[in-house]
Amino acid sequence: MAEKKRRDQARNTLSRTQEVIYQREFKAADRAFNETANQRSRH
């Protein structure tokens, strides 16, 4: 039982880290997309 709990904790830590990384990358991609969209609408 303790082994499973430890594994779940490790998985949660990993997914938490991935979440932060994905959020950061998503924000950067979102910003880049918005900039290109804004440039297109100006032309």
From TrEMBL:
Pfam families: YfhE
Family annotation (InterPro entries): YfhE-like
Domain of life: Bacteria
Protein name, per record: YfhE family protein
